[in-house]
Task: structure prediction
Amino acid sequence: MSKIHQNKCSTFLIVDQSAKLSYVELILDSTTFRQTRDHVTLSSFRLLSELTVANILLSSSLKYKGSVILQIHGKGMVSLAVSECNNAGEFRSIVKENQKNSPKNKNHFYSFKELIEPGGGGLFVASIKPHNELMNIYQGIVQINDRGVDYSLEHYLNKSEQVKSWLRIFINDDIAKGILLQALPRVSSQKKMCDWELLTDGLDQMKTSEIIHNNLDDLLLKKYLNKKLIRTKNFSPIFRCTCQRRKIIASIKQFSESEFLNKRQKRNKLEVMCEYCGTVFLIAPGELDKSFKNYGRN
Ligand SMILES: [Zn+2]
Result:
C-alpha cells in the first residue's frame, strides 16, 4: 500500500466559494512517528495517528503562520496524547500510557472513551500558537464524547468555533486519512443550506474501504468534478521536532530547584532526552549558569 501512497495534504476551494475541503493521508510506518508502536497498545497508537491527522487538517486551515496543538490529558489507558503541527505541515506527536492500567492484551480494542476517560475527568484542549509572539495563544476545551477524535473535534468546531464543519478520520494498520469540510462565511446570506447538505451527503456516501484503498485526490476530484475544485494548497506533512538546546536549558532552569542542580553540577553533565524525537542533549553545568546571562539572545 505505501508504494502508491505518500504523506499528503491538499486543500481545495469549492468553485462557488461556499466551502473548502482538505484531506490528509498519513503513512503509518516507522518514519511517521519517532515513537514506535511496539511500546504502546494498538488502540493508543491509533489514537496518536488520529490526533495527528486531525491536527494536520486543522493547522492547514490556519489563516496566519502558527501551530495548532491538540492535547489530551487522559484518565484511562492513555495519560497523555499531544500533537503539534504548524501551517507548513511539520508535526510532532506523542502518546503516553498510564503505567498503572497497563493492559494485558496489546491488541485488544479500546474505545476512545475507554482510552481517555472511562469514568470522566479527561481533558481535551485545542490551542493555536501564532508564529508572531506578540499575538496571544488561543485555547479551547473540546468536549470528549464516545465517538472519537473526529466527532469530538467536529462538535467543537461547530458549537464552540461556530464554523460549520464536517470532519472524519479513517484508519487501518498502514494508513490514516482525514477529510475536513468547512463552510466559508458568505458575503450575502442568500445561499441555501442544501449546498452544504449536498456536499456532506456526498462525503457520507464514500465507504471507508473506498477511502482507505484509493488515492483521495482521485476519489475527491472524481466525486466533486461537477463542483469544480480549485486546489489552493498541496504539501507533504512531515515529522519535524522543534526541540532546541536553549529551550531545554530554559525549562531545566524553570522547573528544577537550584539545590538539585548543585548536587548534580558537581559531577556530571545533565542528560535530557526529548520525548518527541529521542534526541539526547548533554547539558554541561556551565551552560546552566551561562544561559542566565545569554538567555533571550540565542
Ligand atoms: Zn525533539
Remarks:
- The chain is about 30% helix and 30% strand.
- Residues 241, 243, 274, 276-277, 279 surround zinc ion (CB under 6 Å).
